[in-house]
Amino acid sequence: MPRQPFIVGRPVLVVVDMQTGGGMLAEDVGIDVMPGHSDRVRRCELLVRAARDRDIPVVFFQEVHRPSGIDFGRELDGAEGVHCVEGVAGTELEPSLRPLDTEFHIVKRRYSGFIGTDFEIVLRGLGASTLILVGGLTDVCVHYTFADAHQRDFYVRVVADCVGGSSLARHEAALDAMEYLQAGAICDSAAVLCAFDSQSRTTLTEGTVR
Amino acid sequence: MPRQPFIVGRPVLVVVDMQTGGGMLAEDVGIDVMPGHSDRVRRCELLVRAARDRDIPVVFFQEVHRPSGIDFGRELDGAEGVHCVEGVAGTELEPSLRPLDTEFHIVKRRYSGFIGTDFEIVLRGLGASTLILVGGLTDVCVHYTFADAHQRDFYVRVVADCVGGSSLARHEAALDAMEYLQAGAICDSAAVLCAFDSQSRTTLTEGTVR
Amino acid sequence: MPRQPFIVGRPVLVVVDMQTGGGMLAEDVGIDVMPGHSDRVRRCELLVRAARDRDIPVVFFQEVHRPSGIDFGRELDGAEGVHCVEGVAGTELEPSLRPLDTEFHIVKRRYSGFIGTDFEIVLRGLGASTLILVGGLTDVCVHYTFADAHQRDFYVRVVADCVGGSSLARHEAALDAMEYLQAGAICDSAAVLCAFDSQSRTTLTEGTVR
Amino acid sequence: MPRQPFIVGRPVLVVVDMQTGGGMLAEDVGIDVMPGHSDRVRRCELLVRAARDRDIPVVFFQEVHRPSGIDFGRELDGAEGVHCVEGVAGTELEPSLRPLDTEFHIVKRRYSGFIGTDFEIVLRGLGASTLILVGGLTDVCVHYTFADAHQRDFYVRVVADCVGGSSLARHEAALDAMEYLQAGAICDSAAVLCAFDSQSRTTLTEGTVR
């Protein structure tokens, strides 16, 4: 039973690492992803379109590592191989999920969108208080971005049919972990479309930038 | 198959939130914990003693919230009730797991030991590069401290028989998630005791503070 | 010509490092301070009392270093000697400038109040947007706390007759630097008392915690 | 009298905001700069060339704000007008001070290079411990980057004849403030060239990435 409204204050749609590698073979892009990438892309498109129709800001994250490997940190010590290298096939954003000139494109070097980026600067500028996450991996970049947002007092929602994990089991475990943090955080794209519909433009512009 | 040695550079033993509430009823302390708290305390004591014998630094975290509730952030929006309030029974550190005057006691307001604390200042001062985590909850404070340490380039190990989760299923899912990040991260207390034994004092003092 | 109102949204009074060492000899406490410490203490008392009368939150910072010296970082590479050691005379807060149980006492290891502390957690909990700084040193802890607050989008004010520098010249240079960042930031205690007077309790409680 | 060697461990040359606006009129680019920009550019070129000859890493910062103004924070509340807008004349890096493909180009939204960027990730990857700062403004981006580096335990040096302030007085006050933090921090380009000369490639590669 959720203890907070679905959207509190001003929402932002956050598209996490929707890169073409999500639909490629792990042996080619270094990371295993559960099936269904192209379906998730299609559903994310619907959410992005709905957000744009309502002037809800959209942030597009892209994980990119320099070719020298200098910024991988400990990311190659675990299950993932070399991944998301600048200029390599699979690293580019999905063609249908790219920012307009007025939207936000943030390159990151770590899983969490809060580490080593200007995400917090953008969120403060927007006066955002609810983050709606889609993309991948559910159990890595989505989960750790959620945890960081939660620990910085944001309301966070995850669209279960728009996120994919490194495996189905890890996807489900991560959804469960996020629901533990904020009851009602896990939702589906239909619920988000409905919530966006009920956000009048007036309401949104009242959530002003301080 | 671990890709890195068990201990790289200078190790630090990190005791996460070993508070007396871990052995109390959830209805009294706000948080469910899987059975076995007192056994975990006993095993943690062995590790702390071994660390002290080898001059390996020990950090004791304690989650504490001000009675006004001002610093809970979103922590009451999920599965946990009011918890770890200053001055309330269950918040104090386990009597057998408290810092010596020369050790480190760090109060935190969030799950991750890196948020809102001087943990990084201490770790830099110590020249630490491997963190060995014990305590709880496996799937909350331990997991998110691990993720933050990992994303700050530390080598991190979790002692599976010295950490407890909010449920057995979540405990196991969190261990799996951490092993995904660093292969070989999940170990048991016997392995740590053995590794500490093979650390000569000479080796340790060579890992100098810069 | 200030471009913003003197107080925007909810104010917080921030007392920076008003420790007894400010009135002692540099050769004893490691840090030079320009004359006038006891006068500044007296004026700070007036502001603290006025804040309490209006339910304006007060944060008391205290710089403290562990006796081992582990957390000094590079602080001994410059003009300052060993300073603010835990348990040593000069480190304790001025007796007349100590937090009530309902106020905030934050120990810090660095100059900026934002580094290695839970200050941001507290400020978010309070819904604070304007910080009013008093204490010392104008050119070190006050200046760098100001710069960090400014870069995190807070409105910041400095009470010139309630802050003291490492020298009069550095005090004045730091005030000039802060005025460069936010026009109208530099004020005096009379102006703050007047502004507090015009804050009705109603206004303040409207600046609610989200 | 400096208490530390001029270069400790692995050095990095950091070129702060050497953008063409530094040589333009304040009424056109929003920021006053003291005379001598083109001379500073020329001297910076010498340092960059010397660093490249020795395989010393070079980081090029560029302050850029989105045209919507969303990420200015409080930067327009003080002495500076609208500045460093993406795509506007004056925002681009000086043509002679641009990164090679193997070097580091970091866009920032705030004064300090540590806020909202991946600078710390890069510095850890490089195993850097001494930062040598050139560029501008001495009293804003250079000073606050210095303060943040200092508070994160880096050794920091500022090349006085390669940095320019918002005025000569503020330039000098900022140099004095940085020398207060680390004795011997203020140097000139001749000293840096000499120090680079005495760094053998062997020494440098010994300062390895952990």
From TrEMBL, chains A, B, C, D:
Gene3D superfamilies for this protein: Isochorismatase-like
Isochorismatase-like domain ranges (all copies): 12-186
Annotated GO MF terms: hydrolase activity
SUPFAM superfamilies the record matches: Isochorismatase-like hydrolases
Alphabetized UniProt keyword annotations: Hydrolase
Matching Pfam families: Isochorismatase
Domain of life: Bacteria
InterPro entries linked: Isochorismatase-like_dom (IPR000868), Isochorismatase-like_hydrls (IPR050272), Isochorismatase-like_sf (IPR036380)
Protein name: Isochorismatase
Organism whose genome encodes this protein: Gordonia jinhuaensis
